[in-house]
Amino acid sequence: MTAPAVLVIEQEKDPKFWNTWAQQTLKNALSLQTLNQNKAKNLIFFLGDGMGVPTVTAARILKGQLSGQSGEETQLEMDKFPFVSLAKTYNTNAQVADSAGTATAFLCGVKANEGTVGVSAAAVRSQCNTTKGNEVTSILKWAKDAGKSVGLVTTTRVNHATPSASYAHSVDRDWLSDSAMPAEAVQDGCKDIARQLFENIPDINVIMGGGRKYMFPKNQVDVEYPDTAKYSGTRKDGRNLVGEWIEKMENKNGHYVWNKKQLLSLNPNNVDYLLGLFEPEDMTYDLERNPETDPSLTEMVEVAIKILKKNPNGFYLLVEGGRIDHGHHEGKAKQALYEAVEMDRAISRAGLMTSIHDTLTIVTADHSHVFNFGGYTHRGNTIFGLAPAVSDVDQKPFTAILYGNGPGYKLVNGGRENVSAIDYQENNYQAQAAVPLSMETHGGEDVAVFAKGPMAHLLHGVHEQNYIPHVMAYASCIENKPTHTHTHMSSVMCM
């Protein structure tokens, strides 16, 4: 068997190519010594759920390969951000974090227990009576109180862990509607997260994602899937939260949409409030998205910014690429990486619509996964392809992408499955895993934080995850949080 030809790009054989590139990078780095100490009028926070460093690297390669390159030399939009730091993701009671406790950290500025949103570590998961007095507020609320327009856009349910920490105070991330709560918790006065979305912070300007079924009365059929019972309404209290929102916004330029056509037919100049719920549960994976009926993350972000930027005081926008995480949990690396590439497109679109002079943009992850790729693959090897040599133990091929645990663990005749006998590049292929689990787990390592715009240089080195919203508040001179005027940096004025 002859060895496959190894790709070497011709210009890379010349040392001058590398030296010139390095010198240009050095020149760019020296220009960063003049720090951007402007006031951040706008704040944009991109959260790739589960987007650990291996996912960033693999998504970069995929992005390049989708455009016909070998991939490794490609730049993601976040790669172009001038400042990068690391965030420690542990929860107050967990070495390996979950998305609720981490969301409380990077949105509310306070580390918390796993499974809880918008409450401090004094609150105990699932114990309703530990909620009161332990509520913490988010950067979205701080921005709203400062007169900015605010929005949240996600590919998950709008009441999922990450977005819910923006507005909810819940000792259990799974209390998505009242039907998911113990009777005792309801009796004790705790509210489900869907209800809190509409009641806690009045007049959030933009809300987009999935999650319709949590907003409608139990058994009310879904507008898009009337014949699918599992997508019907879930609310035991009989409330129609969407109907209530529509009625409240009747004279406030408020619009409710549930499909792409309705969304893109809006004139953002005539919209001050937007509620877009595009699926009963999470939105579909981008690889499976119907481009005729379902908006992409990039399309949602574009509409959101057009609406929010009309405010002369600026805006705050949370954008979650939430299904990166779901792809990994299911062991479906292809789904996860395509979700990450789509989020990168959304980052690019946001960059074109804003300026680094007055907009602080941060891209990070809440946690990582036990996902990786290796095996001495050659340059340009498809990211979903095989390692160049078979295992020297069981003499079977293996894919470059592997998981430490998850549903991809399979035994065939007492041994590891031979991947050459199956379609390992299929969209829903579950990559092989070392330990069998029905769902793959999060990883515990630090995650990258990419930043550009005013005060982006404050994200440097290694920090606790809860540091992030304090930087955002400081950069934008938000009241009740540390501001430029409280420091020796007299060159920056909060007006």
UniProtKB/TrEMBL annotation:
Its EC number is 3.1.3.1. The gene is alpl. Mg(2+) binds at D49, H160, T162, E320. This is Alkaline phosphatase. It is found in: Cell membrane. Keywords: Cell membrane, Glycoprotein, GPI-anchor, Hydrolase, Lipoprotein, Magnesium, Membrane, Metal-binding, Zinc. Binds 2 Zn(2+) ions. Its cofactor is Zn(2+); Mg(2+). It is a lipid-anchor; GPI-anchor. InterPro entries: Alkaline_phosphatase, Alkaline_phosphatase_AS, Alkaline_phosphatase_core_sf. Belongs to the alkaline phosphatase family. Its main location: membrane. The active site is at S99. Gene3D superfamilies: Alkaline Phosphatase, subunit A. It comes from the Eukaryota. One of its GO terms (cellular component) is side of membrane. Signal peptide: none annotated. PANTHER family: ALKALINE PHOSPHATASE (PTHR11596:SF90). GO terms for molecular function: alkaline phosphatase activity; metal ion binding. Homodimer.
